[in-house]
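User: My collaborator sent over this chain with a note saying "see what the structure looks like." That's all I know about it. Can you take a look?
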Amino acid sequence: MQLVRTLINLMEACEVRAIKFFYFNRMQERTQLLYKGLNSINALLFRWDTTEQVNWGILIISFIGMAGPIFFGILFNQLHASLLASLGAMFVTQGSSSPTLKKLAADYLMTILAGASSIFLGSLLGGQNWITALVIVCISFLVALITGLDKKIARLAIQFLVFFIIGTGLGSNWEIGLSLKFALVFGIGAVWSTLLLLIFNFCFKRGIGQFPASAKAIPFKKIYHHWVRTLRHFKGWEFPIRMGLCMITAEAIGLFLGQELSHWIPFTVALITHPHYSSALQRIFQRGIGTVMGVMVGSILLIIPLPHAAIALIVGSLAAFRPILKKRNYLLYSMLMTPLMVISSSLHSNMTGGILFVRLLDTIIGCIISFLLGYIIWRRKAKAT
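Assistant: Without extra context I'll predict from the sequence alone. Here is the result:
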């Protein structure tokens, strides 16, 4: 009997040790997973890329291009117009890969026309509830469709969409004359920035674009035929469908909420939704966190009673660091881009805590829509395929 009890006690002791060993291993595995996860998050969000050299010329041009119109507006008591002009300068200072000054000027002319058209059409069609929502959805689908043509066209098309949505926030209520004034002021800012870029390029004989030119340009006809062939398969329509689905949801929620600033939901979706899966998740987190934090920073700067000259200096400084951070860290780049747009499009209105809360809510909603409808469901389908 004593022997049986001894065996039972021994078995219980072994069982307790086995359980402790099991839980210790599980805890160690979870600790290692947590450590790997934190390292992945650190690499995903806070990686600092130093592979490319800083182009100090584009920094100076960005500062003068963005802050200059605001200083002129302060000097001539036309602050509202100068803010719209600074948005025009922001539209242009994206760089160009054209090898000659003539082609560079042609590229910038096309960019100016696209930007002024986006503000004109956006302001003309803004504030019309479901009509505006339907137009934004259709334009988003078309923009996503033509992004498969060429990188330069894709970049310009996305810019058109983003600034079209910003233009809808101006809302001229079908007043063509007022929309033309908006487009003219926007175009003046774009021309101002373009002249600075061309003068710098002519004087120093060096590239100011942020995107390197290819060794041999591919004929557009060949690019077009390749794009048409991709549309014969579902893969060529996938990104337009993803973007359209996200925009339909964004506009439906905006109409349901009935908010005056609900255009921030599709604005966030346009910024975050990315065509490529390889970098989509990274861009969603970087742009999402950066956009939310940028909205907070920009709105808080508007709540604080700062002198207009200080706002101009802040805008210029943010614009100057924008080209660096786009290459170094996309999270910080998104944090800078959003305050620029917030300040330039909202300084004429009275910012309150309620508006800040609504804007943050709309930004978070846009991030969630892009993550769920623009990435998760399609990623699972790709894996299944």
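A starting point for your reply to your collaborator: The longest helix spans residues 2-46.
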